[in-house]
Amino acid sequence: MAAVLRLTGLLRARGLAWPAAIEHLAVVGSTNDWLKERARAGAPEWSAVLADRQTAGRGRHGHVWASPPGNLHLSVLLRPSLPAFAWGVLPLTAGVAVCEAVRERGVEAELKWPNDVLVDGRKLAGILVEAASGGHEMEGAVVGIGVNVATVPAELPSELAASVTALAERCGAVDVLDLAAAVLARLAVCYDALAREGSAAMVERWRQRAAAWWGSVVEVQSAGEARRGIARGVDEHGALLLEDASGQVHALLSGEAREVRPSR
Question: What is the per-residue pLDDT across 202-241, written as a single tens digit (0 to 9) for each?
């Protein structure tokens, strides 16, 4: 309860009265799973949960998200009244929010399609947006946000740990609740902008914060296959535009992308 009271106080200091319940858990399997259960039971939009530790945290495509104490593990329920195609922009919207919250600390974060926040090419945060369904209809989306605040998870393999960073390495100690307030406040602003201005404007906002890898050769794991080509940008629906060897451009709505370094 103390953490929630402090967090809501930090939000009020930013001029924001949070419109739904925020829960704080010491340990949970997955904040996304916990909140999806509440969504199915009728939880209102902007319900949120943060946990000190997750035992079954995950990223996109079932990847494990290591979740030790001291880092941010946060999920928020949205119930968008948006056209169906605009739902695909929600991960990019959340990415912009996290990027802007990190930049408040003076850290030059960038975005990598579709869901990573980077600092100097190393992963700082990840986002997982999952549908919250009731019956046969999609009634909401749970936005899961994981940020390495205090530490790079010790359980990461050494070859992976080298590509990951934490805020503490970049700007010293950061209070997790202060960062949570910044992320929630920026998410509220970005979500409102998406509803008012549409997906194309939000994607342009995302592009302005994106890592400069356009024109580079990338490999994308999408729909069970690896595709290689030149990254040409992101369209107004949030899809990656990938130019293949024949010059044809494909719009990929989901996948995992990595830049292909030239062999030496």
Answer: 999 999 999 988 888 999 987 778 899 999 999 988 899 9
Four-way CATH pick for 217-259: 3.40.50.720, 3.40.50.300, 2.30.30.100, 3.30.1330.90: 2.30.30.100
CB 247 within 8 A of CB 126: no
Question: In the structure encoding, which two tokens stand for residue 144, read together?
Answer: 């899961």
Q: What is the pTM of this model?
A: 0.91
Long-range pairs for 6-10: beta carbons < 8 A, 24 or more residues apart: 6/177, 7/50, 7/177, 7/180, 7/181, 10/177, 10/178, 10/180, 10/181
Are the C-beta atoms of 82 and 194 separated by less than 8 Å? Answer: yes
Q: Which CATH code fits 2-208?
A: 3.30.930.10
Taking the C-alpha atoms of residue 240 and residue 251, their distance in angstroms, rounded to an integer, is: 5
Spatial strand order in the sheet of 249-252:
249-252, 240-243, 225-234, 217-222, 256-259
Q: Where are the domains of the chain?
A: 2-208, 217-259
- Residue 181 to residue 10: CA distance in whole angstroms: 6
